[in-house]
Amino acid sequence: MVQTRSVEIDQAATPPLPESEIRAQLQRIQTSPEFDVPERARRFLSYVVEEAFAGRGDRIKAYSIAVEVFGRDSSFDAQSDPVVRIEAGRIRRALERYYLIAGQSDPIRITMPKGAYVPAFSRNDRGPFPEGNAQGKTEEHSEHRVGRWKPILLAAGILILVFSVLYSFLRTDELADAPMNSADIVRAVPDVPRLIVLPFEDLSRTGSSDIVARGLTDKVIEQISKFKEIVVIAGHPPETSGQTPSSGDAMAARYALSGGVRLDGDKLRLATRLVKRDDGSVLWAESYSESLQVRSLLDLETNVARAVATALAHPYGVIFRADASKAANMPPDDWEAYQCTLAYYGYRADLNPQTHAAVQGCLKRAVERFPGYATAWALLSLTYIDQLRFRYRLDAPSPPPLDLAIGAARRAVELDPQNVRGLQAEMLAFFFRGDVETALKIGSRALATNPNDPELSAEYGIRLALSGEWKRGCALVAEAVGRNPGPLGYFETSLALCSYMQEDYVAAEQWIRAADVQINPLYHFIVAAILGQLEKTEEVARERQWIEANAMGLLKNIRREVAMRIHRPEDQAHFLDGLEKAGLTVR
After folding, report:
1. What pairing do the DSSP bridges indicate for beta strands 194-197 and 231-234?
2. What stretches of 333-430 adopt beta strand conformation (E)?
3. 115-144: pLDDT as tens digits
4. CB 304 within 8 A of CB 310
5. Whole-model pTM above 0.70?
6. To which H or E segment does residue 357 belong?
7. How many CA atoms lie within 13 A of 198 on its CB side?
């Protein structure tokens, strides 16, 4: 007979919940296909729930989780090994998705609040967006209203199929070197998403809080504008309707961001929501809380604004997800070029060589029609780089992919020197040309331009690591992965390589097993090297067979391929040692 106990969550606000009901809810979540996480994340969630039941919530730390759940030894250091932090982020996103898709009517909500690993349990009574007043209390953990990844990738796949039929390869290599006048640039931008940011409401109604609300609004606009995939517009409050923007950009804005700011003792609280303007639906809502005693007000505002900007405007953020899920049903011509960027990020989810060609063709068509669209040029450059580093269609009758990549990246940066996707493409092009010093300088400049972009910071971190700065580079990748709401397989593979180079082969295997990019050939070489060092004979034999059947182009001159990616000779030798132990012939 199962004993029923009550688990207290917040004695001041919430009555205790029966343990039996929480267990039933945990089982409901764990068995749902909408809770899409690997097995180790399920063990993680079960562990912290059981620890909370046992009254050991104060002992739920990164160290105990790493040792008890992930099998790390007593030397585990959370600063150098981010596995717990990254897996916690995965669980948070999976729980959000579950409650959005399958668990809307469930009686109990299980969450893992940010900043800790102790689970929280509450009755599933979703209230409205916290508007608040001078005496009200702002909720700190309002629900993310975001879509799941499978419909997004399905939409992207449909787009790719459509554009692969509509378009074959055009004269894009000539376009990259063609001169462009200012008139071309003015009319050469497609209908990318527009977001209007309304002034945040001062809920405390004091002189200082009004200043904070206005300052925070300006900071959010500043940080979002660093992302070039969208256009951000400054709005005006309803009471100043005479000043409400009536320009084409403002009227065409598909999304609106609003919020309320409250000074509560020594806390600054911001509650925000993103609304789809055509139907008023709330796509996303979040609350932020910062201590006024920890840092200066300017730093505090910047910290909150960066978090908002990353959540909304990152290529895998809320706006991207909303657009990607609808893209297949949006036929207007001006959407075509933007759809190509959505299709690119769909391809990046699994690096499938079959979709690569269609995405590249789509982007070629986009830059021919909109030659001033810097982001499309940058993404086109990245597809040429993938063609080289993943050995896609190298026998295609065209100039060398690296030359095309450099030309497209150069055009992107010429059009918009602040476009970090263009700088990212330029960084990678110089890296694969062998000019590592220039590549890292460009990457550093890009990161300074937009430190909010985890896609960029992870790529820069990988280049640092591969150039020999493993500690600093891998730390940057790990931090970016913790903030990245998109597909993580490519970056988890990089963290596996980071662990391998530090001779932590057990952690390397755990990272590579978490990555889901098995269609990519480089993934299998990293798996083989790791298993070779671990002397897992049967498993490494399967990897060797896959490589010999699917990646002979890489295997023919693996020393050259490794040297193209890993800069220092001693690091190259370390990786090749793993391949030799896996039974591969190293030439």
Report:
1. parallel
2. none
3. 789 998 988 764 333 333 333 333 333 333
4. no
5. yes
6. helix 353-369
7. 21
